[in-house]
Amino acid sequence: MLRKREKKEDSTKGVSIRAGLMVVFVAAVTLTATTFIQSHYLQKGIKQEASLRAQSELEGARSDIMDIVNQAEAAVRNSLWIAQWCLSQTDSLFRVPQRVVLDNPVVVGSTMALVPDYNSKYPLYAPYAVRNLVNGKVQILSLATEEYDYPSQEWFLLALEDTEGYWSEPYFDIGGGDQYMTTYSMPVKDRNGNVAAVLTADVSLDWLTSVVTDIKLYPNATSTIVSRDGNTLVMAGGTPLEGEKYQTYSIPVERTGWTLSLSVPEKDLFANVRQAGYLVRLLQLLGLVMLVFILRVLTKNLIRLHTLNEQKERMQSELRIGHDIQMSMVPKTFPPFPDRKDLDFAAVIIPAKEVGGDLYDYYIRDGLLFFCIGDVSGKGVPAAMVMTVTHTLFRAVSSHETSPARIVSVMNTSLTQSNESEMFVTFFIGVLNLASGHLQYCNAGHNPPLWLANDIKKLPVEPNLPLGVEDEFSFQEQEICLRYDDALFLYTDGLTEAENASAQLFGEERVQEVLHKRRNSMEHLKAMEEAVDQFVGEAPQSDDLTMLFIHYLGGEQHLVLHNDVQEISKLADFVDSIAEENQLDPSLAMSLNLALEEAVTNVVLYAYPKGTDGVVDITARLADGSLEFVISDSGIPFDPTAAPKADTTLSVQERPIGGLGIYLVREIMDDVHYERVDGKNRLSISKRV
Amino acid sequence: MNITIEKENGVVTAQLEGRLDTPASLEVAPTMESLHDDAGGTVILDCKKLEYISSSGLRLFLSLRKAAVNKGGTVIIRGISNDIRQVFVMTGFLNLFQIED
Predict the structure, then answer these.
(1) Which terminus of chain A is more exposed, N or C, with fewer CB under 10 A?
(2) What contacts B53, CB < 8 A, 6 or more positions away?
(3) How far is A593 from chain B (nearest CA, A)?
(4) Contact check, Cβ <8 Å, A594/B87
(5) Alpha helices of B1-101 — where are they, by DSSP H?
(6) CB contact under 8 A, B54 and A598
């Protein structure tokens, strides 16, 4: 059983853990998906924003470059007319580049290179003005050297074909300024429109560095300017790393054929997002851990609840079993004594909870009906246990004792000594002599039973303490005599204190109202139950309800005789059976027989006219210690008590033959009473026995 | 109820046996009345075995006694039980008869 339960708990635990893991898994997936989508759109937004910013930065940089380019180009263009003019005066030709350099600070060097063989005197002629970087003075050099061979240089060749001017690929100038430079070249045409020379302006690329270095959008971004041929002119910021993802924004620089680019590593771009992402993930993880923790606690509680429910169910089933055991202890076969004509008995117990503290019991021993009713203080299991003990005690003690007070005393002593729960029992016990109707009883603090005789009254009770209160208490016993057709109604306060929804009590008046109509015992209890049910309505039963109904039909015997003298012989057996039942002295029995015979003979012989059939009804009942015979007939009215009393002192001659019959009846019986009721002669004769 | 009558030396002894209730009295009335013829002498009613007597039985005894008084005879009642003696006491019959144990 225990192992089975553990197994069950384990499986419950397993199910809970699986359910918990599922919840955590779903939560994790949902959170991750949400974060992913959020981060995706965030990155997209950031990229767009970064693109806009980069574009604007690059445009700014480009405009800086264009400024220089324009200045350089302007320097060349503005000198074209002088160059044209100087073509014819070779000696002053050097002044053209000199002027270009002098007038334009952005130009570090300039040459005016004649197309080979244009001047017959100087087949190669290229004066070169260059600004000394140290002192700023402009020197004039010549590029027309064997080693340099300017006509084969790119800036020269390509400029001849391009009337719009040509920006050379950047190069490292060794002779001029020992720096990176680029050259803008434009053809110079003579008056005839023939290309006669190329005028150039060298621009240092050092300033480009400062232009790109100024682009400081992201700490690890790389700004570059790439030439037409793909050579990197300038690079600022970090060197691009292998394996790193970059966002690259580019913008062309017109005329030069350069491309201005900005490469931003994504880790820069998304630095904040990533940081926020870490934080979010950390929070999510924390949340999941908390979720796991909460689930653990919840699961534990659920298991505990489940276990508690199981325990509760088990307890309820045990209470039901307890109820069954309790019910099996009290006798409940009705009618309990089907063969007895002198007793109509019924009892019922309706526990408020599964087990209750009410009890009743009854049995017959040696012609005595032992019965009891009790109510243990409190309800539920403890009350039921005390009830069980009380019941057992009643059975044990009453099996060898007939005095209610003594039975109750022994029970009280035992209950008081073992009473650790301080519970007490209100108890009523009665011992009824079924033959005589003599009832001995003792009431230990119980509500007095109702005695149904001609009217309904409370049984007079001594104010004894309930059982289990005081060890040495002396219980007072009482007695009454029940007459034929008397009844006792015993109940616990669950009846009178039954409460309806508006907190009204059923009360004694309602009890008496129900009892007023005469019924048999079972019908009485049923009627009472129905009345209580109707009164209480939907309100829950607050206390145990126990009822006993004892309808006494003993102490009375009947005999019917016809108006035939021979019938009188039957009286002997009739009186004998009564005497035997009531253990009467044989002499007394004979006297009673004699009195009855005299009374009955009178009726048999004289009540009915000769030849007519008539009946004499004889009832014998023992009540209040008296044996009473009632002789009734529907013959002619006749009062035997009206006859004069016989004189027993007369002499033989004087004594009349008759008249002794009624005289004997009077002599033997204590009371003789005649009445004419409902057209019947009714002679009642009784004697204390 | 049974009555056995014996005559010896002019003394008539009637032995009564059983219950002398009303029906029995009616039944034995002729037998008892036959004893009136012997009422001039001594009639002994032996009641050792008489269990019960009612007023109708007593009437039979009384009429025998009246006959004896008229004829100058004697009626002796012998061996009545205590219970029947009580009835004799109540009715004053104890004084009317000669009672022997």
Answers:
(1) N
(2) B20, B21, B84, B87
(3) 9
(4) yes
(5) 22-34, 55-71, 82-91, 93-96
(6) yes
Work out whether strand A222-226 and strand A232-237 pair parallel, antiparallel, or are unpaired: antiparallel
Are A368 and A508 within one domain? yes
Distance CA A219, CA A263 (A): 11
ipTM: 0.95
Distance between CA B27 and CA A610 in Å, rounded?
19
What is the reported pLDDT for A646? 84
A531, A552, A573 - which closes a domain? A552
Within A537-678, residue ranges assigned H as helices are: 570-581, 586-606, 660-668
Q: What tokens does B25 get?
A: 């009295």
- Give residue A85's pLDDT: 86
On the CB side of A444, CA atoms within 13 Å amount to 32
Place of tokens 């203080």: A377
Query: In this model, does residue A506 exceed pLDDT 60?
Result: yes
CA–CA separation, A642 and A627 (whole Å): 23
The residue-averaged pLDDT of A350-368 equals 83
Boundary (domain end) residue, out of A183, A204, A225: A204
For the full predicted model, state whether its pTM sits above 0.80: no
B-contacting residues of A 74-103, CB under 8 Å? none
CATH number at residue B29: 3.30.750.24
- Please check whether residue A102 is in contact with residue A138, taking contact to mean a CB–CB distance below 8 angstroms: yes
B52-to-A49, A426, A594, B22, B48 alpha-carbon distances in Å: 142, 54, 8, 11, 11
Helix A380-398 to helix A271-329 angle, to the nearest 10 degrees? Answer: 20
Under DSSP, the state recorded for A262 is: E
Nearest CA-CA distance, residue A662 and chain B, Å: 9
What are the tokens at A134?
Answer: 């140290």
For B19-35, b/e burial (b = at least 16 CB within 10 A) is bbbbbbbeebeebbeeb
Return the CA Rg of chain B.
12
C-alpha to C-alpha distance for A592 and A38, rounded to whole angstroms: 118
Residues near A628 by beta carbon (within 8 Å), at least 6 away in sequence: A620, A621, A622, A684, A685, A686
Joined tokens for residue A625: 């210690």
Of B23, B58, B63, Cβ closest to residue A568? B23
Taking CB atoms and an 8 Å cutoff, what residues of chain B touch A650? 92
User: A181: closest CA among A192, A168, A193, A194?
Assistant: A168
Q: What is the domain range of residue B12?
A: 2-100
* pLDDT over 70, % of chain A: 97
Q: Report residue A283 CA to chain centroid gap.
A: 31
